[in-house]
User: Fold this.
Amino acid sequence: MARKIGSRYTITAVLGRGTCGTVWEGEGPEGPVAVKLLREDLAADQTLIARFVQERTVLTSLQHPNVVGVRDLVVDGSDLALVMDLIRGSDLRHLLDAEHALRPQLAVLIVAGVAEGLAAAHAQGIIHRDVKPENILLDHSGGALVPRLADFGIARLVDGPRRTRATRIIGTPDYLAPEVIEGLQPGPAVDMYALGTVLFELLAGWTPFGGGHPGAVLRRHVTDKVPPLPGVPGPLAALVASCLAKGPAARLTASEFAARLRDLAPLLEDMPPLAIPDPREGGWDVRSSARASQHGGRTPTIDPIPMRHSGIVPLVHNAEVKDEDEDTHLNLMRPIRERDQGEVRRRSGTGSYDVSELRAERANAAAAGSKRPKWIAATAAALLVGGAAAAIAMGMSGGDDPAKDNKAHSQTPAGSTTSSVSSPPGTTTRSTAVGLSFQPPHELPPVPVSIQGAPRTAVFKDASGTATLFVFVTGTDDTVWYLPGENSHSWLPLHGLKTGTEPAVVATSAGRLELFAVRSDGVVHQRSYTAGGWSAKWVAIGTGKVHGAPGALANPDGSVVVAAVGSGKTLMTTTGTPSGASGAFSFGEWQAVSTVGDLGSGVALTPSPSTSGYTAYVPRASDDGIMAIAYANKLWGTPVQTPLSGLPTAATSGDGTSYVFVRSVGGAVKAMNGNGQAGAGGLQSVLPPGATEMPDGRLAVVTAASSTKLRVSYSG
Assistant:
């Protein structure tokens, strides 16, 4: 029987039931939808209703091919409903029940897709909190299988402070991270732990810590070692173990995990499903506790059989621990403390399996002309590259949890005073005509999409003094992507805004990055990054419309000026000042510089400390020749022609000298100092460059070797 939900939706048939409510098939203004009606007791909770309204914008802004999108949140009388994409297909649990275990390549591709969806969510500050096979839908509508993660927002909405204290842990026992069990605040790493558990289950047919009473399952998550995965190639076993690390800081980020899985997938092409026996004698069905939690809390009446792989931390004071590197939650507190001091400890066996070496292994296997399956050849190559003894001990059994080689942007060490931005190797420098020399470039990870426009860069410096070089680009998908540190493995997208030009970014003295991008309709939007991550959404700056790339500059008084070229080819500026406890910037309306016209797109700004002003560098529309326009004492000066042409970027070195960089015809990067002297910068780029000042006073210039490959060069 059809039933109305709000004024826009009609539900017609039940699709399924879960712990929080019932999912219905329905119709909306844009076609078929799935509608999740929350339980009556949840719908009657006024606190939850308030959270429902607050979270609407955040949840509906999350759009990704591997996510079941939330289209709307409806509050209507006693009804509380999430309106979602309708996926006509089964979930991963049904596939796993039918197959018991999946081909490793299929398992890796499914989990990689889910990880990419999680990366998009984490970039927007959204944590799923209940990743499991039941919430991974398999969409075949386009012909190819596309995994899509469902139920985003359920835990976020239901898990309010009052409700959590009054009831229980949110999540499914088999997939809960140790820190959740211990009552710590969940972060993105809890999703990675759950996803690692899912990958383990897809490979083995059973979860690593499941079986028996939920209380026993929770204990194992905190105290037990990861069971071995015999027959699984070493690089894949190491990735699984990295996500199941007891300490959240040791786990890969979602984007890193996805990238490494994508690299591994071709090596697993010929590998059949594995028959991995459950080490718990008696063939206990480890999925039973997960199912029990979804069906009225019923638990098996049989006592769980002791696990041979347990490695439990002694609960008796002064009890002996034979292996101080044993993979348990309490022991992993030591490397976490070291990591908090900026000393990332590499645990045995982890060095053989980063992405670049996996590519080398595949090339070595191909060069050897082996007729064995690719996955066997790749594993053999890993044994040779990483050392036979270490690889045999680690590679085929799962081994210790690998500590991450790099720090994720959301896990910057709190107590470190050492810059995380490393100088590139080599001492060779190149002289320039403007007093600059550069060290050999350092390659950055490939951008997932082609770049349009120029890279932009800034250094984020947190309260402890740790500095991280961020690089931003706009992709041909009209999305802003960023790299949180030159040693990061993967680029992350910032969804929620479509733009066709490069952004502007500036570091402020308050330990923030302010990012500015022009939406497709010409309205400039702003987003902030602090040590806690990105602000929830893009915020419009005024109503004025511009075209081309904006420029931004942090002033000594803490304000930020943003400049862009308006639709009338005139220069436009606006100034923002921090306000409130959060330090968020409040911007005024755009002001046009009416005396300057015929301007093209793209603005670079440099400070003028002697006049408490700045200089704007803007190309002319007629010939791209760059004009310098000084602003001092609240007055604009007469435009001055410079020897440069093209799209400018600017940075100021530690001695106070400002430099403007452009890409000239032929690809050479040209530089101009504050005295108007210009010359070859000694660098080459297929795209206009980006530049910023480092904390030690050097300049970092980002250039492009191709439309997806960037590199950074530091001044000597």
The CA atoms of residues 280 and 305 lie 6 Å apart. The two ends are 74 Å apart (CA to CA). The chain is about 20% helix and 30% strand.
